[in-house]
TrEMBL record:
Tagged with keyword Signal: yes
Record keywords: Signal
Signal peptide range: 1-25
The keyword Signal belongs to this UniProt entry's keyword annotation: yes
Taxonomy, superkingdom: Bacteria
Pfam families in the record: NMT1_2
Designated name of the protein: ABC transporter substrate-binding protein
Length: 337
């Protein structure tokens, strides 16, 4: 416990120093942040909800996106400064010459695969034989919902199907849709399985206890890269102290998410609940096996390489991003001592 308290005090002290040297309220720096509405981006809502950004002289202007690829055009057009979402689209953006880098991780292994209906009740659903059995019984392939090609959900799903399950491609059909549409399709029985993250995983299992968890993120791709904090080169160049502060606050929020989940859940409910999802759901989602909060960007670098190689194989990535350029841990190292 003393070690934990010491760590928390060090993080708070580091953040306080940044705040003390940052902009005054009259000189507040706007930070235009695009985000994916998942628990893996929870640091953003903690930072905003706790008032840390305001105290540090930052004004967060948040814009929600239904998938990471949808944010690429916003990054390219210069309408975003920061990004909280899956790393896949950032690799695509970087490979296309868009000046954006990963400065911090937010979560790992957050993706899951769940099954419902006849497929979900199969004991062998997460096997090649299970997929084949479903086709023989139902006369059609397993319908799976996920996000668009190039996104982390789509990439990790295909990696799992091809390299872990080794299912015959003829036994499944993948349909791309947004996060909310995926949840609705799953609950309506329009699909047999889906890749989902928290809080959708908790919501779906509450509404249908027979929903079967087929695979956690680590079973799909070990140390699976999840949500990240990425910043554009233009923002970092124009506002280096603000950029450094964002990374420091991300680290501080990661600690709070892990050590005070109920406190953090209140902020996530406000940012993601839209007034229809209760606090108890977020309290469960934050401590779910699919919620693993990690701030160090280097934690996911090797697994990102594995994922990028697979995206090149799939053809959704035309050119590999230089991971030594894509990842920049200088701010993290400077503020996480």
């Amino acid at each position: 416990m003393s070690t934990l308290l010491s760590k928390v005090r060090r993080l708070a002290a580091a953040t306080a120093l940044l705040i003390a040297g940052g902009a005054t309220a009259a000189e507040a720096t706007d930070v235009r942040v695009g985000f994916i509405p998942v628990v893996g981006s929870g640091q953003l809502f903690v930072i905003d909800g706790e008032g840390w950004a305001k105290d540090a002289g930052l004004t967060l202007k948040l814009t929600q996106f239904e998938s990471g690829p949808a944010m690429i055009s916003a990054l390219a057009s210069g309408t975003l400064d920061a990004y909280y979402g899956g790393i896949g689209p950032i690799m695509v953006a970087s490979a296309r010459g868009i000046d954006v880098k990963v400065y911090a991780s937010a979560a790992i292994e957050e993706m899951t695969v769940v099954g419902r209906g006849g497929f979900g009740t199969q004991a062998n659903a997460a096997t090649a034989a299970g997929f084949k059995e479903f086709v023989e019984r139902e006369g059609r392939p397993v319908r799976i919902a996920t996000q668009p090609p190039g996104s982390v959900p789509d990439t990790v799903l295909r990696y799992w199907l091809q390299n872990v399950v080794k299912a015959d491609p003829a036994t499944y059909q993948i349909t791309a849709m947004g996060i909310e549409a995926t949840q609705q399709a799953l609950l309506a029985g329009a699909v047999d399985a889906a890749t989902i993250r928290e809080p959708t995983l908790t919501v779906v299992r509450q509404r249908d206890p027979n929903t079967k968890l087929l695979a956690l993120g680590g079973q799909m791709l070990p140390n699976q890269p999840g949500s990240v904090l990425a910043l554009t080169g233009a923002f970092v160049k124009a506002n280096p102290e603000a950029a450094k502060t964002m990374v420091a606050l991300n680290t501080r929020a990661t600690t709070l998410l892990k050590e005070e989940p109920n406190r953090a859940a209140k902020h996530l409910q406000k940012g993601l609940g839209k007034g229809i999802t209760d606090l108890a759901t977020f309290e469960q989602a934050v401590v779910s096996p699919a919620s693993k909060f990690v701030a160090d960007p280097m934690t996911i670098k090797d697994a990102t390489g594995v994922m990028q190689d697979f995206q090149l194989q799939l053809g959704v990535l035309e050119k590999a991003a230089d991971l030594n350029v894509l990842f920049d841990d200088s701010f993290y190292r400077a503020t996480a001592r």
